[in-house]
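Annex B. Sample input.
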Amino acid sequence: MENQKANSGYRVNQRSDGSLIGIEVICCKKHVGEMRFKDGEVLSCQECGTKHRVKIHHNHFHIDREEEILEQE
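Annex B, continued. Sample output.
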């Protein structure tokens, strides 16, 4: 198995009691940063403009990707 960097992905960080602290974001094969585990938090990739957003529901959460659409002339 080759050791390749993921093009994009997420890593959830938690405290020793299991509560969630934040979510690290990888996009365009680069570490973009970390979002707090809070509803509505957004982190944008400086390379491609994709927005990564946390949506927290009653007993689960989603991480949505909103890709920027570049207009071509």
